[in-house]
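Q: What residues go here?
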């Protein structure tokens, strides 16, 4: 397979230090050079990007609400599904035509360790472009049962959900999980829970949204309207007084004490994933002692490692998990700005995907 010498990419506009919701950064298209096979390093892999999936982090960088340093005028987005189109001389575990995705955190580290690394789409070049070059050790094979759109959802939201659920290694009979909101991580968690026979309890301010998710995905899903219902009482009702085993916290530190109270008597996990409700809290530090009483775990989630990604992909293939129900809307590459506007608006459920490559050839990662 051959590939061109140049490609189109999006970059954030300049002025990241002065960006805000009232004055967000914009996306700007540029044409850039792509190294040819003779110029590749021995461990490099050239990928053709088929699809890109958006996360809240991508728009948070445009409005100065992302808590990690970002590159001025950097290429946004961390999640994509791509096809191998070029290989360095020493690459052994990939071949041309393979469906792959880059891991979100990259550096010179052991595959099980995601520390001291570069975050693609933030302080490293992202994937909102037609082609990219990565080292082979920073790529994983995608599950063969997924479409390009589904494959693009995995790297950040998928691995985050897998990690937040403790890789589903401690699942017990009657296990349940409380999932805050209907965004990407929550919906991924929901589908992984169903595949692992864990009861998912999803929260929303809209009864209609909860009912639509139950109708679209499964009647095994339980719902709580956090605007009109007492969450603690409802969780006890839905779990027969037991409490939940997992809480995927997308809102931030403000709800942590309540979250701990919702856990089962021993050994539950609260995974701190997001910050949608901001950075402040009105509880006192001594209230964290509740973690000790329950033998519970408060776990900070920063996506996950390459090993996590590969284990999740094996689970997805084994259980034949599909994520097509998560797709809210697909935009063409030329309409990427509209995709970002929709992500920032919050008026969607699940994932927003940008299709970079024209529809041609195979339609899935198989």
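A:
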């Amino acid at each position: 397979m051959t590939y061109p010498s140049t490609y189109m990419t999006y970059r954030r506009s300049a002025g990241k230090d002065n960006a805000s919701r009232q004055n967000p950064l914009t996306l700007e298209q540029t044409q850039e050079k792509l190294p040819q096979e003779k110029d590749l390093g021995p461990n490099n892999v050239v990928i053709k990007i088929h699809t890109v999936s958006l996360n809240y982090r991508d728009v948070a960088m445009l409005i100065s609400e992302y808590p990690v340093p970002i590159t001025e005028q950097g290429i946004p987005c961390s999640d994509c599904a791509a096809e191998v189109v070029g290989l360095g001389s020493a690459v052994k575990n990939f071949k041309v035509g393979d469906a792959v995705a880059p891991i979100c955190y990259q550096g010179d580290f052991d595959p099980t360790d995601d520390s001291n690394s570069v975050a693609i789409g933030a302080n490293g070049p992202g994937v909102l472009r037609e082609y990219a070059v990565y080292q082979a050790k920073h790529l994983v094979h995608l599950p063969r049962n997924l479409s390009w759109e589904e494959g693009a959802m995995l790297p950040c939201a998928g691995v985050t959900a897998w990690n937040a659920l403790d890789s589903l290694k401690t699942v017990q009979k009657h296990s349940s999980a409380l999932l805050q909101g209907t965004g990407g991580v929550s919906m991924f968690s929901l589908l992984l829970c169903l595949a692992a026979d864990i009861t998912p309890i999803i929260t929303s301010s809209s009864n209609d949204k909860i009912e639509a998710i139950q109708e679209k995905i499964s009647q095994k899903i339980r719902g709580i309207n956090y605007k009109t219902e007492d969450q603690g009482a409802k969780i006890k009702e839905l779990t027969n007084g037991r409490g939940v085993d997992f809480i995927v916290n997308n809102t931030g530190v403000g709800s942590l004490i309540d979250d701990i109270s919702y856990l089962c008597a021993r050994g539950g996990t609260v995974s701190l994933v997001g910050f949608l409700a901001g950075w402040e809290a009105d509880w006192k530090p001594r209230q964290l002692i509740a973690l000790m009483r329950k033998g519970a775990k408060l776990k900070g989630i920063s996506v996950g490692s390459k090993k996590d990604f590969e284990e999740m992909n094996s689970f997805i293939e084994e259980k034949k998990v599909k994520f097509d129900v998560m797709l809210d809307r697909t935009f063409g590459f030329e309409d990427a700005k509209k995709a970002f506007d929709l992500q920032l608006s919050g008026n969607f459920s699940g994932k927003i995907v940008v299709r970079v490559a024209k529809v041609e050839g195979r339609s899935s990662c198989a």
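A: Context that may help when evaluating the design: The longest helix spans residues 306-319. The two ends are 17 Å apart (CA to CA).
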